[in-house]
Amino acid sequence: MAFLSPDSSGTSLAATEPWNSMKTMQADRTWPFPPQQAERGFTLAELVILIAVIGILSVMAVPSFLRYYQAATLKSGAQQFATLVNQARELAIKENGKFCVQMSSPSQMRYRRVDCTTGTVWVGPGTDAAGNINLPPSITATVLVASPIFDYVGSAATQAGGFTLTNTQTGATLTVSVAASGRVTVAP
Q: Could you give the C-alpha distances from 12 to 19, 23, 27, 42, 129, in angstroms and in order?
């Protein structure tokens, strides 16, 4: 039986040099199979250190994330509130009349036709049966000076106004203002 070396050209060493055939068999005993290597992977100590580093980074990142999340909640709520105020402006233009934006409770608003005291409450898409529109969760609003009244051209020349929005979890506030021109802005 002849053994071939991996670098031979197809001729058997036993056929050409019979006295070296025993050496070749011993040297090439593992030839078709690679020699055994140490198992690859991570040690327990390396895994423990990795988990500790991830834990420390998480502890440092969570407070920053919570502050960002709560600030973003207030900003998003203020933008939604400004959109609701702009909806009253659009209704005034569409119906060729006056609309007042009024707070029915700290977490609900409504639109009144003509004025803020005796006008009829507008009921439509997004309102309940009483005409109330819910504010975003964890956001409350209070009137700053006066409730704005939009007229048929979209201005609030009759009565400009504004609202202070508060995040109920943090107490942080933003202001939604309505200029005489009818422009609605969100500011700190």
A: 12, 13, 14, 44, 98
Residue 35 belongs to a domain: no
In this predicted model, what pLDDT tens digit does every residue of 22-53 receive, in sequence order?
555 555 555 565 666 667 888 999 999 999 99
Q: What is the CATH number of the domain that holds 114?
A: 3.55.40.10
54 vs 36: which has the higher pLDDT = 54
Domain that holds residue 96: 70-187
Q: Give residue 29's Cα distance to chain centre.
A: 62
Q: What is the pLDDT of residue 31?
A: 58
SS3 readout for 60-92: HHHHHHHHHHHHHHHHHHHHHHHHHHHHHHHHH
- The radius of gyration of the chain from alpha carbons, rounded to an integer in Å, stands at 39
Measured between alpha carbons, how far is 185 from 158 in angstroms, rounded to an integer?
Answer: 18
* Angle CA 119–125–127, to nearest 5: 60
CB 149 within 8 A of CB 115: yes
**Residue 15: inside a domain:** no
In Å, how far from its chain's centre is CA 86?
25
Is residue 160 situated within a structural domain? yes
Give the number of domains in the chain.
1
